[in-house]
Amino acid sequence: MAEESVVLVGRKPAMNYVLATTLPLAEGKKVVLKARGRAISKAVDVVEVVRRRFVQNAVVEKVNIGTEEGRVGNDGRPRNISTIEIILAPPAQGGKKK
Questions:
Q1: Does 34 fall in a domain?
Q2: What does DSSP say about strands 4-8 and 30-36: parallel, antiparallel, or unpaired?
Q3: Over pLDDT 70: what percentage of the chain?
Q4: What range(s) does the DNA/RNA-binding protein Alba-like domain occupy (predicted)?
């Protein structure tokens, strides 16, 4: 399997993550974008910007979604936090394009 780069999406501007995603794709590596909670929409935006402007033939290979038990709220109960993992492959390695 090819090398993978992991990009953890958080509070920084989306273009920081676009750059962090584009460089490994240009080297032929897969990129795994991971985000939790409110950063999920930013991760999706990053993938779309990369695919539309920088690496047009990049392929979304797989999307995993899930839930983690997170911080304890004010009432003492644990909170559930949504998670997403998007695997982006360079054009030469990509599977089926959807």
A1: yes
A2: parallel
A3: 91
A4: 6-66
CA distances to 10, 54, 72, 77 from 86, in Å: 14, 17, 27, 29
Burial of 71 (0-12, 13-18, 19+ CB in 10 A): exposed
Region 44-48: what's the mean pLDDT? 97
Number of domains present in the structure of the chain: 1
**By C-alpha distance, which of 69, 8, 51, 2 is closest to 30?**
2
Question: Residue 9 is part of which domain span?
Answer: 4-89
| Amino acid identity at 8 | L
User: Is residue 94 assigned to a domain?
Assistant: no
Tokens 């394009």, located at residue: 97
